[in-house]
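It is worth pausing here to work through a concrete case rather than discussing structure prediction in the abstract. The textbook approach is simple: state the sequence, then state the predicted structure, then interpret. We follow exactly that order.
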Amino acid sequence: MIFFMLFIVPIGLVSCSNKPALDKRIGFGLASKADANFWAAELGAEWYFDWGTKELSNSSKLEYWQTIRVNQDGYSPSKEKIIAITNKYHGYTWIIGNEPDNKFQDNTTPDKYAQIYHELYYLIKSNDPSAKIAIAGVSQPTPARLIYLDSVLQTYKTLYGEDMPIDWWNIHAYVLREEKDSWGADIPVGVQIAHGQLYEISHHGDLEIFQNNLINFRKWMKDKGYQQTPLAITEFGILLPADFGFSPEFIADYLYESSEWLINYQNEEIGYPEDENRIVQKFAWFSLSDPNFQDSNLANLHQSTLTPIGESFRLFSSINKD
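Step two, the predicted structure:
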């Protein structure tokens, strides 16, 4: 989500005995209070997350990912709450942070993020070895954000003497300008550059840029030794409204075309071998309903109906659902 102007025996890198499941690919972010099961059934969605944590049993029908929010001072919920959930409910995927690179979100430096990730990774794994840990999704897979992630990985290796153990790589896949005091995602926290990608508003819904950024991110993952790790996109979509040229028809088409590419694109050089070399294993549209970004909502909660974007989601899932 972007706002305009994330004493224990070490566990080796990607060494869990049970690998992450590759079903339930099609999902959504739940940004407003709503019945996730009802709307998943309406949409044909298979998984969701809501930027928070829940105390509930795993569902065999609708997968839920837990999210721990991070900041420069620590994380939320508390250590005690996390332990309580992991002791009682096993097998969840836990996302550690939400856009720590973004000053409008978790606003955490790379060094601090690496330290928090290390603490939470081993805290969760010690209480639930079956849990999966997903790194926070940075705002978008651009060179500027890769500098942030490079620093996270290097800090982790320096402090703890091992490569950062990650069960799920995670990314947010927007196309946003990277410039101080402008629209978009600003400069990554803790990264000393004048600017990143100077995308124009017209680029925001450019599918070619969206695709190339994800291909380049998978190349980067391979270079860093993570080709054998699955990749989830926990946010993608159109954040700008119709006044900027993004009509409901445009957004509905963008959802369908981007989702078709995500579920089908394969690349033998950089893809995930366990998934027929697809580069992306799961993806979640932003979002079901968010009052700050209403143009891309999948549902009208007040009327209990799907929007044109939601209808496009339902059509896509009816054809492509596992």
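Step three, interpretation. The longest strand covers residues 63-71. The radius of gyration is 18 Å.
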